[in-house]
Amino acid sequence: xxxxKPAEPLPADELxxxxxxxxGALTEGEPDAVANMANVAALLWEFLPDLNWAGFYxxxxxxxxGDEELVLGPFxxxxxxIRIPFGSGVCGAAAQSxxxxxxxxxxxxxxxxxxxxxxxxxxxxxVLRDGAVIAVxxxxxxxxxxxxxxxxxxxxxLAALLASRL
Length: 166
Ligand code: SME
Hints:
By secondary structure, the protein is an alpha+beta fold. 33% of the residues lie in helices and 27% in strands. The radius of gyration is 15 Å and the shape is globular.
């Protein structure tokens, strides 16, 4: 049986090893993307201290049926912006560049979208399948510079695990 919450504060390498094991166990053999994103959002919230938002945006057609954009997926936190164009804000930058965005001060990020005024720092990691972005994992914190390179690498490993499960 996996613990779905660490018993005590852990160093980053152990924290992400446990988080990945739990995410792997929860999503294994389950083809429903919404269920998997919902459980992983809850896991992120349980495992990572000092967050005010943790969840997913999915790549989906725009309402007019034209270009793809990011659409809100399962999350824990306050209600958030529903649709984000590629290239807009931190999430849109991650989707457009297909690269992790580690932002120490969201107020200094051009075009940052303030869904929750409490957010001070942010980590957004694209989920790539066959080289194309299918979703992003978004973490927000009320603490400036909350996220480290170790967090970025850990969430990238989570994104790689989820690529075939969303
Ligand atoms: N701040 C994000 C928008 C999403 S919310 O934080 C949940 C951004 O600039 O992309």
